[in-house]
Fold:
Amino acid sequence: MAPRFSTRVGALAVLVFHAAQGCAHAPTPAAPPSLVVLEGARVFDGEATGGPATVVLEGELIRAVGPRGSLQVPAGAQVVDYSGKTLIPGLILAHGHVGNVSGTELGRRFYTRENITRQLSRYLGYGVTVINSLGMNPPLFYTLRRELNGNTTGADLMGAGPGLGAPMGLPPARGMNLEDDQVMRPETAEAAREAVRDMASKGVDMVKLWVDSMNGAMPRLSPEVYRAAIDEAHRHGLRVAAHIHDLEDARAVVEAGVDVIAHGVRDQPVDDAFIQAMKTRGVWYIPTLNLDEANYIYAEHPAWMDEPFFRAAVDPALQRRFDDPQWRRETLASEGAAKARKAVAVNLENLRTLHQAGVKIGFGTDSGAMPQRIPGFAEHRELELMTQAGLTPAQALRAATRDSAELLGLKSQGSIAPGMVADLVVLDADPAQDIRNTRGIHAVWRRGVQVRGAPSPRPAPP
Ligand SMILES: [Zn+2]
Structure:
């Protein structure tokens, strides 16, 4: 899907140039009705938030961006006053899941068009405009990926199709109510190659591997099998993302040529050899900090759980669980909660180390894989946790926009610049000052159409 807009970007750049020339000499007699001017908002450019700006949208693309007053407003354009607001690009979720969960339940039966359409719409309402569903996708995925991309009712759906796990290993078929068409479990190198060829022919954006024995409790995908899968994926021009938990597995898959580490290393501090291997090979690191936190934080009932931004993301059945005093007591006292707290602490420290060392950081939450990983909310919580690991708010936002677009090979999403898709989130306050300001969503624009927030003023009649 990466090349979708590449030819159009070049054409548009020329168009923008000519339009600018035209405006300088004579007023345009009648602008096309699809022109929208967003006036006065400050724009986050991937590094910092600038001064008040004018952003011109034409159809589904951004046509021009400049300081307020520097661009001539095309005649007949719809003008929206965003004075005092801040614009960020739509968030790009490089590791999430769709169709696995409904309420407090999970299983194959929730992988339906209706459920997934609703989940993609939820993501969009929370400012997430692309989601990469990293495995456990049955064949319906191929259809939905083709049909739903380019829509304006939900986030774009990318993904890895089923992905490759070990026979009797992760992801746990019984624990997650998975069926055989959701994960491929090759036993030989040749079977792994065959599986990758099958996914490549049907249409995936990435190949997913699970390389994790759950501390020896389950079989791990063998090096022979995942090496073959990685090689075959690369032959088809596909990047490979690996689920890992422990440093030794992360080290092994990096040495085998994997492109993306899809979770943080959570068993021990990363060492210099691992850092160097990540840097030398240009491997992306997606920490998914909120994943382990979600195993205990809702039982603690922090104050933000009473805010509408959180409440609106939570399914009623899940909310009832969170409100149940017995569930809260048992969860907080559980061994799982203690383990999860340790994992979060190690994950935060490793992110700090790897980011400082210059390793490329991607944005992922694993939301949608389990009921407590709440699509929409998880992404904003993840941004906050990334700042707890020492990233500045601007660095966290950059990882979640421009950098994750690069991770996914998206050339026309992830930044606010001429020729890019007009996927924008309008915030009440500047997130570069306080990352929690991403929760003050005033409006969301998707491919040049306002899809959330107060309706825009109608364009003046010509
Ligand atoms: Zn996942």
Observations:
- The first strand starts at residue 35 and ends at 44.
- Confidence is low (pLDDT under 50) at residues 1-33, 455-462.
- Residues 209 and 242 are 5 Å apart (CA to CA).
- The domain at 91-407 is CATH 3.20.20.140 (TIM Barrel).
